[in-house]
């Protein structure tokens, strides 16, 4: 049985299709139609809801796109919808601010904006304009324009947004904790198709073995599109978000080990500490709603040639910790991708964790080239990890996305850099060698010639920025 709180009401789902999204559940089963369906692909934010869960005995709030979140993943959580904000006939302060600042015209996008603002103020009473923009970058409005909406958001900064919900937090945390302690099997099913919520790596392995056709789902930000866009009916789904080993962070002086089911939002603070340019790339991956859901493991296993984290993990010599019925083993990420969306993931296997060596002697440069700053897919993503001694390259790892059928290292260019000064002249041979490494294709995002030119230019950019590392991965917006 899948149990969660819909606002303050407990919901138990036993016989439901594994592919039911939260938005579908809200609009067709719970008869709460405040959350809207705009795109059904995670792009517009009209369906934004807030999900609270207990972390270190307190409620942690995050926005999600309900159109690409599966309802089974709500087990043990509280789903907060726009219907719940207005209490005793009084508008919630963020709703009142939108009215006062004329932040809504047709109103279709408004519930999504309201939920993003509600979550922002639940987590931070004094957001800056940059934080407001970050919170709203995944919400599109086609008629009001963003100025009044941002005014509404900023009008509350520093005031303390008091609402009745804040007083209910302790009681909600207790209810959710009790729910997770019940000895019930967290699952639901429709016929022979199940949605399963394992809590340990052993249980996950046993379920994958028992259901050979099962598909893993983590954040669902890639997988759910097969449901909402391709109308597929999956067989059994196994949700990784509650598996203890897949949601752990381990840290030593030599490495970081990040559970494969950690979301981008979960890992961002640690990456900020060790690899600031990697953390800044994450700021440009999808929107806040997508980063709250999407996971590193999903990005790697999805094996998209334009996934943003594999190029960086290639440059950092990351190691994948894999588990399957044959046991546990590790594999350098450079060996994992075998062809377009093909990997060496064993049958009934999964990624448990991603290990990233800490190599302070190397400088990491990360660049994402896309047509828009926020919520856009890369035309080219590049990550360079370079070790210099007296200005001469000792070690070089160049990871690229958007240049080939898989995320890939540029081995010829890496060789051409070794022993050369990291200077405009010193990288010329490596720039030429990139043409040996890659023959990128033309597609809607960019032409092959543009991609190659950009890859060569990014190497030059790294050279020019080597004394000013804070410039890395900043607002790189270029047009193909
Ligand atoms: C609006 C929007 C914007 C996006 N923008 C970007 C972007 O800018 N850059 C980018 O790179 N991506 C982007 N994405 C794609 C997506 O968010 C990422 O690829 C994300 O990391 C996928 O993670 P997930 O947890 O949601 O994966 P899921 O959808 O849950 O799973 C994806 C695949 O990985 C498999 N899988 C998941 N976990 C494991 C595991 N532990 N072991 C083995 N297999 C596993 C699943 O079975 C599935 O096949 C975007 C998506 C959306 C909807
Ligand atoms: S409906 Fe557009 S993001 Fe969900
Ligand atoms: S108010 Fe109409 S889309 Fe935003």
TrEMBL record:
Residues 1-85 form the 2Fe-2S ferredoxin-type domain. PROSITE patterns: 2FE2S_FER_1, 2FE2S_FER_2, FAD_PCMH. Keywords: FAD, Flavoprotein, Iron, Metal-binding, Oxidoreductase. It is an enzyme of class 1 (oxidoreductase). The keyword Acetylation does not apply. SUPFAM superfamilies: 2Fe-2S ferredoxin-like, CO dehydrogenase flavoprotein C-terminal domain-like, CO dehydrogenase ISP C-domain like, FAD-binding/transporter-associated domain-like. One of its GO terms (molecular function) is xanthine dehydrogenase activity. Its EC number is 1.3.7.9. Residues 188-361 form the FAD-binding PCMH-type domain. InterPro entries: 2Fe-2S-bd (IPR002888), 2Fe-2S-bd_dom_sf (IPR036884), 2Fe-2S_ferredoxin-like_sf (IPR036010), 2Fe-2S_ferredoxin-type (IPR001041), 2Fe2S_fd_BS (IPR006058), Ald_Oxase/xanthine_DH-like (IPR016208), Beta-grasp_dom_sf (IPR012675), CO_DH_flav_C (IPR005107). Transmembrane segments: none annotated. PANTHER family: XANTHINE DEHYDROGENASE. This is 4-hydroxybenzoyl-CoA reductase subunit gamma. It comes from Marinomonas aquimarina. The lineage of its organism: Bacteria, Pseudomonadati, Pseudomonadota, Gammaproteobacteria, Oceanospirillales.
């Amino acid at each position: 049985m899948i149990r969660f709180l819909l606002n303050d009401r407990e919901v138990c789902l036993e016989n439901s299709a594994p592919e039911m999204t939260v938005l579908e559940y809200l609009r067709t089963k719970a008869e709460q139609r405040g959350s809207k369906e705009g795109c059904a692909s995670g792009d517009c934010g009209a369906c934004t809801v807030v999900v609270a869960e207990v972390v270190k005995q307190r409620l942690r709030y995050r926005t999600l796109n309900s159109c690409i979140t599966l309802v089974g993943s709500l087990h043990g959580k509280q789903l907060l919808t726009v219907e719940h904000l207005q209490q005793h006939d009084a508008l919630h302060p963020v709703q009142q601010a939108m009215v006062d600042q004329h932040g809504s015209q047709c109103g279709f996008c408004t519930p999504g904006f309201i939920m993003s603002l509600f979550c922002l103020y639940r987590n931070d009473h004094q957001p800056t304009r940059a934080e407001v923009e970050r919170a709203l970058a995944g919400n599109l409005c086609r008629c009001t324009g963003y100025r009044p909406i941002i005014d509404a958001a900023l009008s509350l900064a520093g005031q303390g947004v008091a609402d009745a919900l804040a007083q209910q937090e302790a009681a909600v945390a207790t209810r959710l904790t009790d729910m997770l302690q019940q000895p019930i099997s967290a699952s639901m099913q429709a016929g022979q198709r199940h949605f399963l919520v394992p809590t340990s790596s052993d249980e996950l392995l046993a379920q994958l073995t028992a259901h050979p056709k099962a598909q893993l789902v983590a954040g669902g930000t890639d997988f759910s599109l097969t449901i909402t866009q391709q109308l597929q009916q999956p067989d059994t789904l196994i949700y990784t978000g509650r598996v203890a080993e897949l949601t752990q962070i381990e840290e030593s002086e030599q490495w970081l080990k990040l559970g494969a089911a950690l979301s981008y939002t979960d890992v961002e603070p640690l990456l900020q500490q060790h690899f600031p340019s990697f953390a800044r790339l994450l700021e440009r991956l999808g929107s806040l709603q997508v980063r709250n859901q999407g996971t590193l493991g999903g990005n790697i296993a999805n094996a998209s040639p334009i996934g943003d984290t594999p190029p960086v993990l290639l440059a950092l010599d990351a190691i994948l910790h894999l588990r399957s019925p044959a046991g546990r083993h590790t594999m350098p990420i450079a060996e994992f991708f075998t062809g377009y969306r093909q990997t060496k993931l064993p049958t009934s296997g999964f990624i448990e964790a991603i290990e990233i060596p800490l190599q302070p002697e190397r400088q990491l440069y990360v660049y994402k080239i896309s047509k828009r700053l926020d919520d856009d897919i890369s035309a080219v993503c590049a990550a360079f990890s370079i070790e210099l001694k007296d200005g001469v390259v000792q070690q070089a790892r160049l990871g690229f996305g958007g240049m080939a059928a898989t995320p890939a290292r540029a081995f010829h260019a890496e060789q051409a850099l070794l022993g050369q000064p990291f200077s405009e002249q010193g990288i010329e041979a490596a720039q030429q060698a990139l043409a040996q490494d890659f023959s990128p294709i033309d597609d809607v995002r960019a032409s092959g010639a543009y991609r190659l030119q950009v890859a060569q230019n990014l190497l030059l950019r790294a050279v020019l920025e080597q004394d000013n590392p804070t410039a890395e991965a900043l607002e790189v917006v270029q047009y193909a």
